[in-house]
Structure formats: C-alpha cells, structure tokens
Amino acid sequence: MSRLLLGACITVTMAVTAVACGGDPAPTTEGTVAGQSAAAARGERLARSQGCAGCHGGDFQGGAGPGWIGLAGSEVVLADGTVVVADDEYLTVAIADPNAQLREGYTLRMPANNLTDAEIADIVAYINSLADG
Ligand code: HEC
Fold it and tell me: Rounded to the nearest whole angstrom, what is the distance from the C-alpha of residue 65 to the centroid of ligand 1?
C-alpha cells in the first residue's frame, strides 16, 4: 500500500509539483502564498513596487532597514529606549510617518512616501502575514 502510494507520489511529483506529495509549498515571492489574504497580496506587491524591499530586504528579511519576518506583534526598542509592541497602529505610523518613532540601532532614515491609508493598511496586512515566517 505505502509502496503503491509512494510510486504514485513520485509520478505526480514529476508531472506536477512536490506540493502534491504533502511537502512544504516552495517559498514564493510572487504573492501567491497559499492562504495569503487579498490585502496581504496587494501589500506585498506595493512593498515591492514602492521600493520598500530595497531597504527591508528582497524577501523582507532585513537589510539597511529592519526585517519584517516575525516583526508584527514583537517588541521593538525605539531610539529613546522605549519598548513598544509592533501592532497595527505602530506599523501604520511607521509607514505613514517614518520619523515619528525611530528604531534603536538604525542611523539611516527611512524616506517619506505617498502611500494612501488603504495602501498602508494593505502593507500592514502583508507584514502581519509574515509574523510567523
Ligand atoms: C532608504 C531605506 C528605506 C526604504 C526605501 C524604506 N524603509 Fe522602512 N525603514 C528603514 C529604516 C532604516 C527603518 C528603521 C528606522 C526607523 O524606525 O525609521 C525603517 C523602519 C520601517 C518600519 C518599522 C519597522 C520596525 O521594525 O519598527 C516599517 C513598518 C517600514 N520601515 C516600512 C517601510 C515601507 C512600507 C516602505 C516602502 C514604502 C519602506 N519602509 C521603505 C529604511 C527604509
């Protein structure tokens, strides 16, 4: 039985994709991650088209700016030593008014942007979707 299944699985794998065999879906950068909400998908596209990835990392793992993986809901230390939780409100302000609350340890300043409130909400949804990443 299991050998039969395995054989079928290998055939399917070759024909389609490893996902059919219950493996982890391959990580994708296309905004097509299974279960990703429409808002998060829009947010990911915006974050790429608006140049955010240039500083926050091609996969938002961090670079000149802080990484977004696991950021939502975590505690961040601000330049004045205050510790805040990176909730929706914090993330929204961080994007809408980049110099309002500066993170400790970054001398680089994040540039202002012209994102609308709706676009910022989509990006926050995307950052939230990276919380367990
Ligand atoms: C020139 C580099 C640069 C670009 C481009 C940039 N950022 Fe940033 N970003 C930073 C730096 C540096 C920080 C940390 C300092 C601070 O708090 O401003 C930061 C902080 C943040 C934070 C808070 C993160 C945290 O860990 O507290 C968010 C959210 C954020 N950026 C989102 C964005 C979005 C969305 C865009 C695109 C519209 C963007 N950034 C573009 C450099 C950049």
Answer: 6
The CA distance from 44 to 39, in Å, is 9
For residue 132, CA distances in Å to 9, 28, 58, 69, 72 come to 29, 15, 18, 7, 9
Q: What is the mean pLDDT of residues 24-49?
A: 77
pLDDT single digits (tens) 70-79:
999 999 999 9
Pocket of ligand 1 (CB under 6 A): 47, 50-52, 54-56, 64-66, 71, 76, 86, 91, 94-95, 98, 102-103, 106, 108, 110-111, 113, 115, 123
